[in-house]
Each structure stands twice: as structure tokens, then as C-alpha cells.
């Protein structure tokens, strides 16, 4: 049987790696994945403690965490898509305008330059009017 400490070490390592990734990354998708990795570290610890104590409380909590994580994934990806459509970037430092009024803006010295706005593609005008229905039948015969 594998000792409890091995599970706790793996769960703690997942949580710490997720936390480090969340604090150091600037891409919204990578930050989201790091938050999910922290949740998985917690679920490993819950299941390990439940196994060590011989009850199912950890598994029940894990099912709730997995359910909430699935809902969070759907909402987070929808939010990320909407933010990308609006700003054409996934960099967190661009979204300084979303903070509450009255708070100072932080100055990011390593911020990437704003991407140039793309001009919309030109739309072609119709080539002409459609021929009458009678002419179409004669051309196929």
C-alpha cells in the first residue's frame, strides 16, 4: 500500500506548480489551466485523506469540486472568448480598464505593444442582376 505522504506530496506539488504558474503567467488561458491544476492538487489530497481515514467524505467533496470545475471551465472559456473578441489579445496587462473606479492603475514595464487594428476586408458588390427564370431553363438544355 502506498503511504499517505506520497499522495500529499504529489497533491502539494500540483498545487504549488499551479500557483507559481498562475502568478507568473500573463496569458488568460494559461492562468486558467494553472487554476485547474491547483484544483486537481486539492482533489488528490481530499481523496488521499478519505482513503487514509476509511470514509467517503473526500470522494464526495471531490465530486463536487469536479462539477464546479466543469461549470467554471465553461464560464471561463466564454469570458476569455469575449475578452479576446473585444481586445484581440489574451494578455492580462491589457485589461487595466476593467478595475474598479478609484483604484490606481499598475504600470507594467514588460507589457507587450498593442497589436495594430486590422482593417476590415472589403466587400465585393454584386456582379449584376439575376437573369429571368425562363433564360435559365433554356441555357441548360
Keywords:
141 residues, mainly alpha, Helix Hairpins, 61% helix, 0% strand
3D structure, described in words:
With 141 residues, the protein is mainly alpha-helical. The chain is built from four helices and no strands. The termini are far apart. The chain has helices spanning 4-24, 28-53, 57-87, 133-140. The model has no long low-confidence stretch (mean pLDDT 86). It has a domain at 4-91: Helix Hairpins. Helices cover 61% and strands 0% of the residues. It is elongated and about 80 Å long.
Summarize the structure.
With 141 residues, the protein is mainly alpha-helical.
Strand content: under 5%
Q: From N to C, what is the helix and strand string?
A: HHHH
| Rounded mean pLDDT score | 86
Distance between the termini: 82 Å
Content-based structural category: mainly alpha
Query: What CATH architecture of the domain at 4-91 do you see?
Result: Orthogonal Bundle
Sheet bearing the most strands, described?
A: none
Amino acid at each position: 500500500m502506498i503511504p499517505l505522504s506520497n499522495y500529499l506530496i504529489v497533491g502539494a506539488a500540483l498545487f504549488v506548480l499551479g500557483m507559481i504558474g498562475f502568478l507568473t503567467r500573463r496569458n488568460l488561458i494559461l492562468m486558467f489551466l494553472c487554476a485547474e491544476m491547483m484544483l486537481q492538487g486539492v482533489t488528490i489530497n481530499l481523496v488521499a485523506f478519505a482513503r487514509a481515514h476509511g470514509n467517503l467524505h473526500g470522494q464526495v467533496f471531490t465530486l463536487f469540486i469536479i462539477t464546479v470545475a466543469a461549470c467554471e471551465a465553461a464560464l471561463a472559456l466564454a469570458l476569455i472568448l469575449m475578452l479576446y473578441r473585444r481586445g484581440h489579445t489574451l494578455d492580462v496587462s491589457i485589461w487595466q480598464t476593467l478595475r474598479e473606479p478609484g483604484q490606481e492603475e499598475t504600470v507594467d514595464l514588460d507589457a507587450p505593444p498593442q497589436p495594430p487594428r486590422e482593417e476590415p476586408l472589403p466587400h465585393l458588390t454584386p456582379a449584376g442582376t439575376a437573369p429571368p427564370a425562363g433564360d435559365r431553363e433554356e441555357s441548360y438544355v
